[in-house]
Design brief:
alpha/beta, Rossmann fold, nine-stranded mixed β-sheet, four-stranded antiparallel β-sheet, 13 strands, about 35% strand
Length: about 210
């Protein structure tokens, strides 16, 4: 898989990891996070209504109009997809002054999953990803103290959890009731999650 790291403009307190061979894109004011951690992005993308300082001359810049159908972060994902990237690690997708951007990024996460691509969103000690129908035995490692499951589709069926304080077998989760909130890994081998129908949001909290 080809991995792209994206820095959005929300809160970032954790260390941003960029491995050799990965592309680093900053969405608008996400460039400030790169500067704060001495990272050199490959490209800056956005309408630059948030990052109003002088833009660097040695980094490729793709400027979008302020009137567009997607957020700057989503524009970064679309750009990377066109370049053949199919795995995304996204920092700064939450927090800040705009909760609507956080909600938009959750919808973006589902959109990525529906295209059978992979994405992980980071926020402080929390890791968010998406499970599509048919995904079996997704490992939640024991370094996560808590995890929660939420139905993003109207209903998720055939949800099974093993290796957890609150196991489930062939259960049904609805997006109108947070039954999967706040579970715990109970074995050193970790917990496992699978879903037969629907789209699940998985939120893991590191110890």
């Amino acid at each position: 898989m080809k991995t792209c790291v994206i820095l959005a403009g929300g809160d970032v307190s954790e260390k941003i990891l960029v491995h050799k061979g990965e592309m680093l894109i900053c969405a608008d004011s996400g460039y400030r996070h790169a500067l704060a951690q001495n990272l050199n992005p490959d490209i800056l993308i956005g309408d630059f209504d948030s990052y109003t300082e002088k833009l660097p001359e040695n980094i490729k810049i793709v400027r979008y109009p302020s009137v567009k159908d997607v957020s700057d972060t989503w524009a970064c994902v679309e750009y990377a997809k066109e370049k053949g990237f199919d795995c995304f690690r996204i920092y700064g997708a939450f927090g800040g002054d705009r909760i609507d951007h956080s909600i938009a990024n959750l919808q973006m996460l589902r959109n990525i999953a529906e295209e059978n691509l992979s994405a992980v969103l980071y926020y402080k000690k929390q890791i968010l990803t998406n499970l599509n129908a048919g995904e079996t035995d997704y490992l939640i490692p024991d370094f996560c103290s808590y995890f929660s499951l939420f139905a993003l589709s109207e209903v998720c069926r055939g949800v099974t959890i093993t290796g957890a304080k609150y196991p489930l077998e062939n259960a049904e989760l609805k997006n109108s009731f947070p039954l999967g909130l706040s579970n715990e890994v109970s074995t050193p081998a970790g917990a496992y999650v699978s879903v037969e129908e629907g789209n699940l949001l998985l939120v893991m909290t590191e110890k």
